[in-house]
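During the no-cost extension, the postdoctoral fellow (Dr. R.K.) reprocessed legacy sequence entries with the updated structure-token encoder. One reprocessed record is reproduced below for audit purposes.
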Amino acid sequence: MAEKFEIDLSSIIVMETGGMKGRRKEWVREELHNFLGRRFNLNQVHSEYGMTELLSQAYSKGNGYFQLPAWMKILVRDINDPFQGISDVGLGA
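Re-encoded structure tokens follow.
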């Protein structure tokens, strides 16, 4: 929609849910938010991250900071050895 139309959506909340779902080249979040901001006259784009079927959604009102549900736990893993160096980042609040 943003590729075809330039619309003033500044009075509503726009939320991206991540990924191009295999339909095109992936953009990093900043690229997508900048593009949507220009096309829809937005100061901020909100984000959702997670999987609905796992009750693991986290939401961001911008700037890459996500609010997590209390039951969601984040683990940071080494990209080269995901079973080593596991670090518990903590639970959401």
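The CA atoms of residues 21 and 27 lie 11 Å apart. Strands lie at 15-16, 46-49, 58-60, 66-67, 73-76, 87-91. The remaining legacy entries will be reprocessed before the final report is submitted.
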